[in-house]
């Protein structure tokens, strides 16, 4: 269960007050629906609301207000009460599953408030509420004693005046480490060239459309209603890289029925996965990747990600690409790993990469050995490195703008795929190192020994070499001194 901090706008509701208890709530629900039948003010047809008087928690909740959201109170019939809930901040917890988890959910929420040091608003007049989903099954139509499955959101009000940030991942409902079985999957696979400008949100729906076309009439598709989207990556894993995507369904491992022409068979290995549950339109699904890769991975050291593949799981909760109530599971394979303990409990948010970082700003590290250490996703802006030994180290995806390197020994060092920003002029208005900050100023080598250096397949347009010793320097095997001598002779007309 994952608690999120969310801001909610003002809400008006038409309600019937009843005693505490499932059957009393159902009586109130039937009454409110009868009274509001055909009322134009009724909105929020997807939810049934149960309001909880927070001030009664101390002595035991004795009554509830059951109803629906309305646009206004002017057209409401006699016999209903009204509640106006002001815009405010809530702790939100989604409860979906067995009815037995009901009490567990409220206990989990109470422990969350205590653990986070956040004050719940239990003052007189403060309401929390449950938003019960009415589709595909309306829980109010089922007697409480026969109800086996629940699907609703708890909104617990947070006391005002606290310095609290809302959740950066509001659509991530749940997260868990789960053991997953091996799966034999069959479907349509295509390579998505993200680095060349092909957008996944355009490419992937096209792959599914091809899958539906090729699978028409295929009798071997499982009737369980599950399907999968398998991402495969070539190492090293990085954000925005190209990938293969397989739109697929699971088939039995011992099934020998031929697969349709144009389809591919793959095997997903068994193992533990970090399962991220996302609820929302498919256009916002990247939030799940940001949550896993940008937040969870950096906050724990018990697990390491297996970056070769990951997959989506679609089941009966997926209500369509544009439906805000669609639920998708993202499965990220992980392994238990011994990793260094965090250097600090403090955190800072890196807006450029969308990551949460350990906050070591202005820290001073002296006389330390990091031999064999791994630095990943490290913000070193404005840092000073003095008397540092980098022998045999490997640097990848390094932002070196405005770096000043003095007294460095570079023997055997390889500079590969070094690029300049694709811009005509520098832009320094934004925060240094962010996407809006661009530096195309020249790279300068001054008073340096670059003898025997090799420049291979490099872009050297506009390079300016001044006052340098060039004995033995060649371009495509031709000594530069001879080229310069020939040029000087041509200028003299010899």
TrEMBL record:
Residues 1-159, 173-335 form the AraC effector-binding domain. Gene3D superfamilies: E3 ubiquitin-protein ligase SopA, Regulatory factor, effector binding domain. SMART domains: AraC_E_bind. Pfam families: Cass2, Pentapeptide. This is AraC effector-binding domain-containing protein.
């Amino acid at each position: 269960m994952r608690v999120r901090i969310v801001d909610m706008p003002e809400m008006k509701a038409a309600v019937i007050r009843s005693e505490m208890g499932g059957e009393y709530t159902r009586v109130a629900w039937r009454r409110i629906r009868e009274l509001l039948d055909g009322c134009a003010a009724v909105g929020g047809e997807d939810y049934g609301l149960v309001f909880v008087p927070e001030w009664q928690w101390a002595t035991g909740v004795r009554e509830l207000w059951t109803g629906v959201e309305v646009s206004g109170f002017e057209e409401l019939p006699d016999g209903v009460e009204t509640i106006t809930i002001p815009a405010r901040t809530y702790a939100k917890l989604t409860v979906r599953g067995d009815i037995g988890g009901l009490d567990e959910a409220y206990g989990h929420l109470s422990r969350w408030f205590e653990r986070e040091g956040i004050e719940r608003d239990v003052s007189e007049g403060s309401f929390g509420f449950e938003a019960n989903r009415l589709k595909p099954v309306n829980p109010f139509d089922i007697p409480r004693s026969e109800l086996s499955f629940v699907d609703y959101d708890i909104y617990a009000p947070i006391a005002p005046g606290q310095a609290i940030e809302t959740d950066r991942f509001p659509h991530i409902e749940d997260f868990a480490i789960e053991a997953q079985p091996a799966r034999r999957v069959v479907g349509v696979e295509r390579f998505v060239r993200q680095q060349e400008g092909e957008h996944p949100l355009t490419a992937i729906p096209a792959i599914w459309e091809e899958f539906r076309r090729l699978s028409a009439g295929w009798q071997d598709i499982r009737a369980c209603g599950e399907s999968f989207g398998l991402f495969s990556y070539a190492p090293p894993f990085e954000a925005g890289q190209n990938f293969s995507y397989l739109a697929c369904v699971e088939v039995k491992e011992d099934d020998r029925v031929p697969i349709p022409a144009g389809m591919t068979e793959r095997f997903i290995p068994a193992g533990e996965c970090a399962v991220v549950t996302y609820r929302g339109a498919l256009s916002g699904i990247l939030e799940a990747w940001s949550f896993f890769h940008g937040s969870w991975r950096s906050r724990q050291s018990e697990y390491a990600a297996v970056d070769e593949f990951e997959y989506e799981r679609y089941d009966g909760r997926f209500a369509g690409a544009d439906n805000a109530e669609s639920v998708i599971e993202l499965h990220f394979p992980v392994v238990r790993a011994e990793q260094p303990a965090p250097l600090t409990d403090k955190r800072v948010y890196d807006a450029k990469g969308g990551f949460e970082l350990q906050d070591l700003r202005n820290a001073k590290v002296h006389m330390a050995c990091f031999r064999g250490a791994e630095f990943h996703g490290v913000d070193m802006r404005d840092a000073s490195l003095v008397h540092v030994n980098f022998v045999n180290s490997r640097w990848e995806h390094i932002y070196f703008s405005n770096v000043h390197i003095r007294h460095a020994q570079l023997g055997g060092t390889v500079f590969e795929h070094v690029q300049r920003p694709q811009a005509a002029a520098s832009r320094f208005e934004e925060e240094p190192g962010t996407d809006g900050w661009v530096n195309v100023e020249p790279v300068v080598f001054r008073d340096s020994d670059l003898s025997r250096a090799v420049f291979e397949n490099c872009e050297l347009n506009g390079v300016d070499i001044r006052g340098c010793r060039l004995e033995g320097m060649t371009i495509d095997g031709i000594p530069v001194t001879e080229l310069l001598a020939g040029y000087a002779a041509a200028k003299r007309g010899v």
